[in-house]
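Tutorial, part two.
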Amino acid sequence: MHRLKTGSWITLERIRVYSVMMLAFWAVGILAVLVTSEGGLDFLGRPLGTDFSNVWSAGRLVLDSNAAAAYDTSLHHAVQKAAFNSPNIPYYGWHYPPFFLFIAGALALLPYGSAVLVWLSATFPLYLGVVHKISDVPLTLLLAAAYPAVAVNMIHGQNGFLSAALLGAGVLCLDRRPVLAGLAFGLLAYKPQFGLLIPLVLGVTGRWRVFGVASLTVAILIGASTAVFGFEIWQAFIDSTRFTRTVVLEGGALAPEKMLSIFAAFRMWGFSVTLAYIAQGVLALFVATTLVKLWQKPVAVPLKSAALVTATLLVTPYAMDYDLVILGLGLVWMVTYGLENGFLPWEKSALVLVWALPMLSRVSALALSVPLGLMGLLMFYGLILRRVEQGE
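Running the prediction step on this input gives:
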């Protein structure tokens, strides 16, 4: 128990060995999926890089001059079925704002398999680059690469690397490069649920230049997508949000065990949609309030940064386990701060548990109805608040 409290069991050699073992484990798993695949489908009949199929299929519609059809579930699903010559593949919905169609269209110029590879190969280094900017402590990049959320994101062909890179770059550039910070935050609008707290933090800290550049970036993205795809693309997007809310989020079309929010946890436990929204609102209010107070205090930058990226995941009802790549940045900031200022009792062991959670959260929710992903986020946010309350 003493070793858990002090974290003395965590040595550099163990970090190195277990990180390499984790990388090898995921590499073998991904290789096994590839070897057992047929016609671009895995052994369960799903597209390789499952969720990426929605991006590539939307891109095909863009190239066919029918971009608005990406928001039509039947037409979008038909493209997915045709791409893999299978009438039985699940539907992977397109829920992004129209300006993300530019990237989808560019990727769809490639065959599906090549597009997945290019997407992950392009975004993974962005994530690692931001991690390296946060900390150049030895083994940091190895730990960041072995972080289980990385493999979860790769298996799904998802955009967690891009989201983490944009959010992390924005936070890193806040003071010294406000224009770049605003640009990064503006581009993050492709996942609008992750921008809920950014304007609040920028406003209460008086970073109006960053706020202005971010707003201008979003305006340019909206203008460009309107000019290319027409005004009707926005009507199609707005109409599709009802499907996203009622069917995907509230109706459970997106399995709650994959989600991180307290909304999803309440739905998984059988509570009504109304109670789930109330719980989400209460948590969001608490997180937003504590985050604002934290950013208004003379708190160390790594703690502020870790708090912001963690709070970003907590306030939205729509966050997935692959989005835990974002939490990886918070872990790096927190560990960096601990190495410079010492660790509190139980802190090291708690951080290791949070690091391992992406590997366990979905299984625990599915088998035991225990939302470990949410619990890990809350625990990590609590560790940050404890640091602040104890004068860092």
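The chain has a mean pLDDT of 94. In part three we will examine how such features are distributed along the chain.
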